[in-house]
Amino acid sequence: MSSGQEIILEFELKASIFDVAGEASSKTKRVLQQIGVRAEIIRRIAISAYEGEMNTIIHSCGGTMRVVIFPDRTEIIFEDQGPGIADINLAMQEGFSTAPDYVREMGFGAGMGLPNMARCTDKFDIQSEVGVGTKIMMTVFH
Amino acid sequence: MKLSEVQKVLDAQVVSGIEWMDREVKTVCGADLMSDVLAFAKESTLLLTGLTNIQVVRTAEMIDLVGVVFVRGKCPSLELIELAGTKNIPLLVTQHSLYESCGRLYQNDLKSCYKTGDML
Question: What ipTM, to 2 d.p.?
Fold first, then answer.
């Protein structure tokens, strides 16, 4: 898979640390702009990255965001250390949310995150195990 | 419509980014749910919101919003203003409510970024 041309960005996302929430997606967006990826593609990557970043910070016990930028595509992988999603089909439904009120007061937790991520990406895969963690892999072609 | 005209229609004050007032606004989104904004905002969209936390600026940055208008006289924090400055996002404050602000812009031919029936 490695062509030697990819750019790899890795970020640690800490649970419930909201003042820097969005920084990882912001840095990702800047790199994509610097290498000249088309604006409409950057927009889709930025939205899915940001929703994923917020999700990890809101819902998980902490995790990582790994971005691999190839010449023809960008892959984003979120991995966290739990608590895991009991019913993925339910979580993928628009409007379904388990977010607490303080998250809703920040403008998130409306149950749009996962559907929005799936919509903005060309490939979207989610695996989760309760008590273990969640892994989301997304690809957007340039 | 230019941001400078939006300012007049909403009797708004410019909190930061006065140098961006000639930006063109094509559609408007009135929302406190940032995920809805992320899902439905289009190119050259202006956000009207009652939320004043830092995620508003993050959202604006991700989807290149034209600017943000805080309604009902809500003043953003210095931290938010500074972040918006580094991202070139103009901020305005109007004393009008979200409903009134949207109505005024709609009367001036600015339409919603969301078309009824739009799907995710």
Answer: 0.89
